[in-house]
Design a protein that fits this description.
Length: 389
């Protein structure tokens, strides 16, 4: 997915939502001849695309493999039903004590009255949780972060050279990941444990066990999607608190608002702002006609601020109800890990606000956006605070 030309400056990528709203109002659906794809910005059209996998396919060719993000029914439902057992409400709720323990341990390691929220807390928390779910050794967490960063990174610019360079990096990362999980799968085949990899190896679809490639693809998906999204949810939530400090007082007075605050963060500063699809047939969308094979970018970050759905869409409201944002997707590809991401975000915010107060972006720091055409977040977020007595 190539970067939209209008978002090529650091300023626009740090805060793209004004531009996305302008594009939604001016050209809800448009064709970009430079990028050779359609951009869709309005809520109704984005939802239509995401809920119709027959017409708007997730398949991305050989690179997608058996990754849940990049396959369509019926195989998608079979795989999703299988892995969904690890993400039932009961299973997720059972993770609460461990997530609280990990969060406390990470915050215990923070000295003084400042921290880099991303590297000190928002990154290691979901990495540790996912690593433990999969059953991978603790000493490999740094490798996970390195690989997941590359998988969501975009080209430096629109040139063919930059695109080829990032594709080479991704290919190497995927090869390293496949090798890593391939070795772990061999170990778990001989000595199963109470983890996701062992469960996937033991499971069957229509009486047939998953192939090693299918197990590896799911592990890669969980690693990349589970880490990056939750890291940015936590960091984006703290960014909101620092940019609008009156919300800190509101949460202090009413901590029961934290779940609503997380939902509004997902709408207002979504970790994923765009989702790609491919038209499988000629189809009309509004007054436009897509041809079979056309590439389509559904801009969730624009749809989440559509004034026809959300009152005062540019205002952050932790009490917003209903809040039908599409930050976890929509339809059959609705994010499998959404309950886990929400739980981690809620616990992270509870722990941070219980221990610290008066958050602000540390002086003298220029924010650097993550270089990605579909992920919204910053590489680092240094904050200062006051410790609660």
């Amino acid at each position: 997915m190539l970067i939209m030309p209008e978002l090529n400056t650091i300023e626009k990528r740090l805060l793209p939502f004004g531009l996305l709203s302008e594009l939604r109002q001016q050209t809800p659906v448009r064709y970009d001849s430079v990028r050779n794809c359609w951009d869709v910005f309005s809520y109704g059209e984005v939802q239509r695309i995401l809920k119709d996998p027959k017409t708007f396919s997730s398949v991305r060719g050989a690179a997608g493999g058996q990754n849940l993000l990049f396959i369509d029914p019926p195989k998608h439902k079979q795989l999703r039903d299988l892995v969904n057992k690890a993400f039932t409400p009961k299973a997720i709720q059972g993770l609460v004590p461990r997530i609280e323990e990990i969060s406390a341990d990470l915050l215990d390691g923070v000295d003084g009255v400042d921290m880099n929220l991303v590297s000190d807390f928002a990154t290691p928390l979901p990495v540790i949780v996912i690593a433990e779910l999969l059953g991978t050794p603790a000493e490999d967490r740094a490798h996970f972060k390195h690989w997941s960063d590359i998988l969501v990174e975009s080209a430096e610019d629109e040139s063919a050279e930059a695109y080829e360079a990032i594709m080479r990096k991704r290919t190497v990362a995927m090869q390293e990941l496949a090798q890593y999980f391939g070795q772990l799968i061999k170990v778990r085949s001989r000595m199963p444990k109470d983890d996701l990899i062992s469960a996937l190896l033991a499971a069957k679809i229509d009486g047939v066990q998953l192939t090693e490639h299918e197990v590896i693809s799911f592990c890669v998906l969980l690693l990349a999607a589970g880490n990056e999204t939750t890291t940015n949810l936590i960091a984006n939530g703290m960014r909101v608190l620092c940019e609008q400090p009156e919300l800190q007082d509101e949460l202090n007075r009413s901590p029961e608002l934290i779940p609503g605050f997380i939902e509004e963060t997902l709408r207002y500063y979504p970790p994923i702002i765009a989702i790609g699809r491919t038209a499988t047939m000629d189809v009309e969308l509004g007054s436009h006609r897509f041809k079979a094979g056309d590439q389509i970018i559904a801009w969730v970050g624009a749809a989440n601020r559509d004034e026809s759905v959300f009152a005062a869409p540019d205002r952050f409201d932790p009490r917003r109800m209903p809040n039908p944002h599409m930050s976890f997707g929509f339809g059959i590809h609705f994010c499998l890990g959404a309950p886990l991401a929400r739980l981690e975000g809620k616990i992270a915010l509870q722990m941070l606000t219980n221990r610290f107060d008066q958050f602000q972006l540390a002086d003298g720091n220029d924010l650097v956006p993550i270089r990605s055409s579909f992920v919204f977040g910053v590489k680092e977020y240094p904050i200062s605070f006051v410790r609660r007595s």
